[in-house]
Amino acid sequence: MLKHPDQRVVVLMDVSNLYHSAKNLYKARVNFREVLKTAISGRKFIRAVAYVIRTEEGEAGMFFEALQRIGIEIKMKDLQIFAGGAKKGDWDVGMTVDAIKFSDVTDALVIVSGDGDFTYLLEYLKATKGCRLEVIAFGRTASARLKEAADEFVDLDESPEKFLLRNKQ
After folding, report:
1. Angle at 77 between CA 72 and CA 80, to 5 degrees
2. Model confidence at 56: pLDDT above 60
């Protein structure tokens, strides 16, 4: 199945995964406006959800507002801090549940993450649903199995000037 203008598209964004990839690979920030535009690709936009972790610093308020201004809904969780000082914050299960729910109302589901744990989700959806499954991530940090499981993989590394915002020096 190819992309066409009548397809309904839902975009689910693992913000932490993209943030850390952009920071580690390029010392830059992600241009989520361009990522969203690429994910939609001229199709019928149903919904975009960004899964974010609220950190102790709480400095991300302006970033979250910017995402909302471009049409991205925010789902937020607090960072978990364990007794020994270890920290954990991910949305894998929440994104997976939402993807399964949205797969019934969309023609194309776009996962914006390179996290290999989502391979199982794509394999399940391919076996049970009829929607197109696309992945957008930085190819150098994305799971090879995830790329293979997708109907299409968009590699942000191929156009870093389009998908990154350089930090001010």
Report:
1. 150
2. no
Average pLDDT score over residue span 39-46: 98
pLDDT in tens, 5-20: 999 999 999 999 999 9
Segment 83-91 shows an average pLDDT of 76
What is the residue whose two structure tokens read 């391979």?
119
